[in-house]
Amino acid sequence: MQWQDEAIIIGVKRHGETSVIAELMTRERGRHLGLVRSGRSRSMQPVLQPGNRVEAVWRARLDEHLGDLKLEPVRLRAAKLMETATAVYGVQAMGALLRLLPERDPHPHLFDALDIILEAMDDPADAGELFVRFELAVLNDLGYGLDLTECAATGVRNNLTHVSPKSGRAVCGEAAAPYANRMLALPAFLREGPAPSADRDSMAAAFKLTQFFLHRHVYEPRGLTANDAREGFVQAALKALSKPADRQAS
Asked: For the domain 2-76, what is the CATH superfamily, name and number?
């Protein structure tokens, strides 16, 4: 058995004296593990860093085996990803999200999204918005997608201000008014159509929204807790979005 695919490294574990087990997010074969022989060598260590994009060749006698990986660097961005807290935490947090999906289950759109977000990690506003959309995409692929296109109560598509915690559907301002304190805020930048860029408050609301549904539908039923890296990413992104006056006050 053999295949070749584009891949992004999301994790590495030592194996024996000289090898490692690399965890990849591939374009066509989803999250995939494989043994990299001599992976701890000086030449391979810079390649085997989370966030790097590689060309992967996997070989095994049977499909269910771990298999051997040969990796060629395509985009070595790990050094750049170490420069900001949002990037350091973001790489780990997205890897943890991808581990919620079944191994070897293809999700090419998530591969593309991961690649785009990793390129945007140096801008906290862009990284935060893209990260929230990535969480929404993971929720959707797990079967718990939110419907943010129209009001669950009236069917209108404008003035969507809240999300029902029960149904995961958007609700317009008029219908939500009597129950607003029991609903989750829908940030303007997540609505369909032209929308403003996220500020600190709307980003915080977006993180709260995705966290609620990840906890309810994924973490709690599986007996899991959210990866600590997510909280680190959230705090770093919100800090970077704070106004100068806000930072001075804090």
From this structure: Nucleic acid-binding proteins (2.40.50.140)
88-127: pLDDT as tens digits = 999 999 999 999 999 999 999 999 999 999 999 988 889 9
pLDDT tens by residue, 176-188: 999 999 999 999 9
DSSP string computed for 90-126:
HHHHHHHHHTTSPTT---HHHHHHHHHHHHTTTSHHH
At 246, phi and psi to the nearest 5?
-65, -40
Give ranges for CATH 2.40.50.140 in the chain. Answer: 2-76
Q: Determine which helix (DSSP H) or strand (DSSP E) holds 16, and give its type and residue range.
A: none
Residue 173 burial (C-beta neighbours within 10 Å; 0-12, 13-18, 19+): middle
Q: What is the DSSP letter of 215?
A: I
Task: Provide the 3-class DSSP secondary structure of residue 152.
Answer: coil
pLDDT reported for residue 247: 44
Cβ–Cβ under 8 Å, residues 53 and 6? yes
Structure tokens belonging to residue 228: 């600590």
